[in-house]
Amino acid sequence: MTFSHPLARAAKVWRAKTHDGGDQRLLVIVTTIPLNEKSKEYKKGLVERLSNAAQKYLAESAAANGFVLINRLRDWGPEKA
């Protein structure tokens, strides 16, 4: 079962190393919606909707232990706050 949502452009489970040398599986969700609360285009409701969908996915699947929302790399740049 893979994560899919209209606000997510891509999603993949990645293994992250913890400080104690262990592994943690994270669901990395790439989105185009602004995630910076200081941005004029930031929409709290959209971020919450995507976060809630990720939490529901994690509860129903053993694929990952947590999730992170990130913007596409090409959307990174000077802040438009």
How is this structure best described in words?
There is one protein chain. By secondary structure, this protein is of the alpha+beta class. It is built from 1 helix and 3 strands, in the order ββαβ. Strands 1-2-3 form a 3-stranded mixed β-sheet, covered by helices on one side. Strand 1 and strand 2 (23-31) form a beta hairpin. The chain is globular, with a radius of gyration of 14 Å. The termini are far apart.
The largest β sheet comes out as: 3 strands, mixed
Number of strands: 3
The gyration radius over C-alpha positions equals 14 Å
Share of residues in helices = 10-25%
What is the CA-CA span between the terminal residues? 37 Å
- Secondary structure class reads alpha+beta
Mean pLDDT: 90
The low-confidence runs, each spanning 5 or more residues with pLDDT under 50, are none
Beta-strand portion reads 25-35%
**How many structurally independent domains?**
1
Strand order of the largest sheet: 1-2-3
Can you count the helices? Answer: 1
Looking at the structure, what is the overall shape? globular
